[in-house]
Amino acid sequence: MKRKYSKGIKERFYFQGSIPQRLDFWRTGVEMFKENPLFGVGPDQFQRYAAEFRNNAQILRDGEFVIPDRAHNVVIDHFANGGIFAGILWISFCVIIFWNLYQAAKSELKSADRIRLGVLGGIWSGYFLQSLLSPDQILLSVIGVMSAGFIVQVKNSVSNSVSNQRKIGFFADPIYLRTILGTVLAFAIFFWAQVLSSDLRAKSILENENIDPDRVVKSIDNWTSPKLIERITFAVAQADSNCSLVPDLADRMIESDNRSASGWYFKAVCSNQQRNFDEALYSVEKSLEFDPLNPVFLVAKAKLAIAAGNKSEGMSALDILKREYPDNPEISPIESSLSFL
After folding, report:
1. Is pLDDT above 90 for 322?
2. Average pLDDT in the 30-55 region?
3. Is the pLDDT of residue 92 over 70?
4. In the predicted structure, residue 125 carries a pLDDT above the cut 60
5. Is the pLDDT at 340 greater than 90, yes or no?
6. 235 and 227 Cβ atoms separated by less than 8 Å
7. What pLDDT does 9 receive?
8. CA-to-CA distance for 158 and 268, rounded, in angstroms?
C-alpha cells in the first residue's frame, strides 16, 4: 500500500510538474545545438527552429501547432541560440560569480556587509537555480545580473588594493546604478507596452465576428510580430471563405518569418481551394520542411498529391504517417485513394 502511494506521488509530480514537456524542451535545445554548434540558430530564434526537432510523442501530447519558444533551461538556451561560444561564456560568467561569492563569504566582513552578501547570494542562487528549470525573462535577468554585480562589488570592497578601488569606483556610485537600472526598466516598460498594445489590437480583431480587412492590415503594419500575424491569419482563414485576404496575410507571415510552416500551410489551403493542386502541394511541402512530423501537414500533402495525381509524393507522406502515427484515422482513406492512381 505504501509503495503504491509512493508511486502515485511520483507520477503526479512527474506529470503535473510538466516534467515530460521540460525534458522534450531540453532535448529540442540540445538537438538544435548539435545541428548548429558554432553560432547556434541566432538570438531569440529558438521557436523558429523548434518544430524541426519535435518527435511524434511530443506532438501528440502537446498539439500539432504548439511550438516551444524556449528550452526552459537558460544554459541550453544559450548553447542553442548562440552556439558553443555563447554557452561557454554564460557558464564562465556563472562560475565567476559563484567564485566571487565564495571569496567574499570567507573574507572578514562587517556585520552589515555579511547580511547584505547573504541576501545577494540568496537572490543570485535562486535566480541561477530557477534558470535551470524555467525560461528567462527580462525582469528575472535584470534581478539576477544586478545581484551578480553587487556580489562582485562586495568581494572587491574587502580588497585593500588601490587599483581594485579604482575599478569599482564608477559602479560604486549609487547615482550610476540608479541610472543603469532606470534605463533598463524604461526599456522594459516600453517593450512590454508595445507587446500589450499589439495583443489588445489582436484581441479586438479576434473577438469581432465581422473581419475588417483594412483594420487587419493596419494592425499588422503597426506591429510585425510573427505570432500576432499567425493568430490573426488563423482567425481570418476561418471567416474568409473566398480566400480574398488569407494569401496576402500568409505572404506577410513568410516575410516576417521565412521559416513559418503555418504561413506556407495557409497558402496551400487557398491554392487547394482555387484547385491549383501543384502549387498547393509545393506550399505544403515547404510547411513540412520546417515542421516535418506535423500530422496535419502530412495528411494535407497526401491528399493534395492524390488530387494532383502524384502517387510517389502521396506514398511518401503516407509512409511517414504510418510510421509515426499508426492510429491516425486518415491513413485508411488515403491508402484507398492512392490505390486508384
Report:
1. yes
2. 91
3. yes
4. yes
5. no
6. no
7. 43
8. 66
pTM above 0.85, yes or no: no
Cell 544559450, located at residue: 78
Does residue 58 register a pLDDT over 60?
yes
What is the number of residues in the chain?
Answer: 341
* Rounded distance between C-alpha atoms, residue 336 and residue 341, angstroms: 10
Average pLDDT, whole number, for the chain? 80
**Mean pLDDT within 7-11:** 48
**CA end-to-end distance (rounded Å), the chain:** 59
Checking if the pLDDT of 289 tops 60, the result is: yes
> Is residue 236 predicted with pLDDT exceeding 80?
no
CA distance 47 to 19: 20
- How far is 312 from 308, CA to CA, in rounded Å? 11
Contacts of 11 (CB under 8 A, 6+ apart): none
With contact defined as beta carbons under 8 Å apart, do 40 and 47 qualify? no
The 3-class secondary structure across the chain, one letter per residue, is CHHHHHHHHHHHHHHHCCHHHHHHHHHHHHHHHHHCCCCCCCCCCHHHHHHHHCCHHHHHHHCCCCCCCCCCCHHHHHHHHHHHHHHHHHHHHHHHHHHHHHHHHCCCCCHHHHHHHHHHHHHHHHHHHHHCCCCCCHHHHHHHHHHHHHHHHHHHHCCCCHHHHHHHHHHHCHHHHHHHHHHHHHHHHHHHHHHHHHHHHHHHHHHCCCCCHHHHHHHHHHCCCHHHHHHHHHHHHHHCCCCCCHHHHHHHHHHHCCCCHHHHHHHHHHHHHCCCHHHHHHHHHHHHHHCCCCHHHHHHHHHHHHHHCCHHHHHHHHHHHHHHCCCCCCHHHHHHHHCCC
Is 103 within 8 Å of 154 (Cβ atoms)? no
275: exposed, middle or buried (C-beta count within 10 Å: 0-12, 13-18, 19+)?
A: exposed
